[in-house]
Design a protein that fits this description.
Length: 125
């Protein structure tokens, strides 16, 4: 099982990025998927999740209204569209998959079995 996260980069405040998480060796549609982010010295934070059952989504308050999570089961992928980026969004972003359907809601790292390698997002002028 492998999750490949991509799409990070350097963007100015107010800009946008789209992160992708592509799976191999597993049918991602069978899993709840979440995006986490982490900065040095802080715990990994679950910012968004999407259900495998009905496409329900979750967003942390810090990203609500700016980020959108979606999935394309035909491409075995999940995406995170990030708009109106702020310097405080700077972090390494990870995608993760959990076989427990409820994990997408208020995602906790310990509930996710499979992890991507992380992609760095830097928001700076």
């Amino acid at each position: 099982v492998q999750l490949q996260a991509s799409g990070g980069g350097l963007v100015q405040p107010g800009g946008s990025l789209r992160l992708s998480c592509e799976a191999s060796g597993v049918t991602l549609g069978d899993y709840a998927v979440a995006w986490f982010r982490q900065v040095p010295g802080r715990q990994r934070e679950g910012v968004s999740g999407i259900s495998d059952r009905d496409g329900s989504t979750y967003y942390a308050d810090s990203v609500k209204g700016r980020f959108t999570i979606s999935r394309d089961n035909a491409k075995n992928s999940v995406y995170l569209q990030m708009n109106s980026l702020k310097p405080e969004d700077t972090a390494v972003y990870y995608c993760a998959a959990s076989y427990y359907s409820g994990s997408y809601l208020y995602p906790e790292a310990a509930e996710f079995e499979h992890w991507g390698q992380g992609t760095l997002v830097t928001v700076s002028s």
